[in-house]
Amino acid sequence: MSPLSQTSPALELRAVRKSFGPVNALSHVDFAAYPGEVHAIVGDNGAGKSTMIKIVTGIHKGDGGTILVNGQEMDLRHDASQSQDRGIAVVYQDLALVECLDISTNMALGNLPYRWGVFLDRKRMDAEAAAALKDLNARVGDVRTPVGLLSGGQRQVVAIARAVRMNKPIILLDEPTAALGVQESAYVGRTLDRLRADGKAVICISHDLEFVFKHSDRITVLRLGRTVGTRTTADVSRDEIISLITGAAPADTLQEAS
Amino acid sequence: MSTTATAELAVQTERRDTPRTPILRAVLLRQETWLLAVVVVIAVIASVRNPNFMNPDNLVEILRGSVIYFIMGCGAALLVIGGGLDFSVGAIFTISALVGTSLISQGVPIVVGILAALAVGALAGVVNHLIVTYWHVPPIIATLGTFFIALGLSALITGGNDVVPLPADFMKLGQGSVLFVPNVIWYGLIVGALFYLVLERTRFGINVRAVGGNRQAAVGNGLRVVRIDLVLYVLAGVTAAIAGMIYSARVGAGQVEAGGSSVTLVVVTGVLIGGVSLLGGLGSITGVAVGAVLLSVIDNALIVAQIPPQYNNVVVGAILVGAVAVDHLRRKQLYKPR
Fold first, then answer.
1. Helix ranges (DSSP H) in chain A
2. Which among A105, A149, A190 has the least Cβ separation from residue B334?
3. What are B298-334's pLDDT values in tens digits?
4. What's the domain count of chain B?
5. Is 0.95 exceeded by the ipTM?
6. Distance CA A200, CA A187 (A)
7. Contact B206 A120 (CB under 8 A)
8. Which of A138, A163, B107, B335 lies 20 to 30 angstroms, CA to CA, from B151?
9. Which of B3, B8, B13, B278 should we substitute to test contact with A (largest number of A Cβ atoms within 10 Å)?
10. Is residue B132 assigned to a domain?
């Protein structure tokens, strides 16, 4: 299945801009991710990858441009809970886990199960967390273990399991393999493969090109806050991506013109 | 998706890495355990020097003395667990009690007077929140500022005079007892139970720990952190107002000199001794209860044992420093760098 044959992108950015005071973090970012594809975003440090993801999730407010979710425009000044409501789940690079809370609480955070209106449904929370982790073949021990006691790889797994458990059509991952060893990276890769098979739109920021080539369908390259090109992974060489990242190859004129 | 057993190993934790803490160890790790030990030691020393210390009347007196600090400590503790801090509680205690008692002494129905006092406490909390959140003043400075403002206003409102006399019906609220237990202790139990439930059993309580434990993560998970902050500052103000009214009813006057910096310091000290972490996220209401009782025991024991009161501050200071050092050790156990 070619993702491009789908008519409507699950998540589309058009000419999104953002500056922090005098610093132009993003000057022109576009890309479109379709259901059932793993769309990688690559770029050098400072290319604007993390800023882009934070604008989509509402941590930062965009200055201009358009974000479309299933073809519907999303306010650039939305907050994090609105992006969840619109069907976007995120795995942040810093994972956004609360160290003093246990695994199951972290997995339900922002959406805690309750009884009688206000009381926490601890049993259901534990059961759901255990089921979600089991479903991903992730065994990180007792769900009542504080996240502060887990290793980096285990925390990454918990963060991914949390995003998967939300069962949203769009999943963004920011550098999911940055802190991981070879086997753990492979595990994350298989998880992405599975999300694609489930028809999710998976957007994965990474500078691990080996990982990107192994698991993505398309690659969008950012350089200095601009989208310089999007390529189908199967039709592009590693060298071409690297020259787009470094600027050795010119950016696609189509995007420069707009 | 096909998975292989070997690949699963990559993310599998061996059981021994994260064992359930054995019960004895868990008990020993709790701050309350050590505080209770300190309480027992002080009690033994005091009763050796003066057998009257163990007199039931004296024990009730100790509990009664702890209630004011405990009730204020509940609100303050929740705020500290949520990553905030309130140094203004001693002054909120004073100003809300003066407003409430003034109204009552002028013939306003007692219930209305009490509600007015709580409203003043809540308003003070809102002001603290606005200064911290929208003016970006660090909590310790913001609430120190409102501390002085509230204390100054208290003196202005009353012209420096205590509010007396108060109606007997109002004083009965602070002096009577039900089922042989003084009302004041009942108030402490009720407020404590409510705060315990809120912190340990509700979604709000978990969200408070999340905000205090890792604010950025809380924001990233869509928690409405500003709203949670607001509720926390309001609760700290309201519990200070409750304590102020209970104290006024107990002593039969709205006192200008009651509250103030000593109450603020004792409440914050009690909260920290009780194992609430200034860094947020960790702490319990039972810890605050033991902390408040400990402070009251020290107060009482030194008097009963006829030890000069100057020693009180020395002992409290030493316990405070020790308790916060222990908190740091607990954190090191709980968080390992990733």
1. 49-57, 80-85, 103-108, 122-135, 152-165, 182-197, 209-215, 238-246, 253-257
2. A149
3. 888 888 888 787 788 888 888 888 888 877 777 776 6
4. 1
5. no
6. 18
7. yes
8. B107
9. B13
10. yes
Helix (H, G, I), strand (E, B) or coil at A172: strand
| Cβ atoms of A231 and A240 closer than 8 Å | yes
Q: Residue B94: which domain range?
A: 66-267
In A157-176, which positions are buried (b, 16+ CB within 10 angstroms) versus exposed (e)? Answer: bbbbbbbbbbebbbbbbbbb
Query: How does pLDDT run across A129-183, given as a tens digit for each residue?
Result: 888 888 887 777 788 888 888 888 888 888 888 888 888 889 999 988 887 888 8
Q: A80 vs B7: CB contact, 8 Å cut-off? A: no
Q: Is the pLDDT of residue B92 over 90?
A: yes
- Which tokens is B315 given? 């002992």
Q: Is A116 on the interface with B (CB under 8 A)?
A: no
- The amino acid at residue A84 is Q
Domain presence at residue B104:
yes
Element (H, E) at A27: strand A23-33
Residues of A in contact with B18 (CB under 8 A): 141-142, 145, 149-150
Backbone angles phi, psi at B165, to 5 degrees: -85, 165
Across the interface, of A79, A144, A149, the residue whose CB is closest to B336 is A149
Radius of gyration of chain A measured on its C-alpha atoms:
18
Q: Do B8 and A137 touch (CB under 8 A)?
A: yes
Which residue of B13, B207, B282 is in closest CB contact with A100? B282
B35 and B296 Cβ atoms separated by less than 8 Å: no
Top residue of A88, A100, A123, A194 to mutate, by most chain B CBs within 10 Å, is A100
A139 part of contact set with chain B, CB < 8 Å: yes
pTM of the model: 0.83
B162-B167-B170 Cα angle (round to 5):
95
Q: Do the Cβ atoms of A141 and B216 come within 8 Å?
A: no
B198 found inside a domain: yes
Does B4 map to a domain? no
What is the nearest CA distance from B321 to chain A, expressed in angstroms? Answer: 22
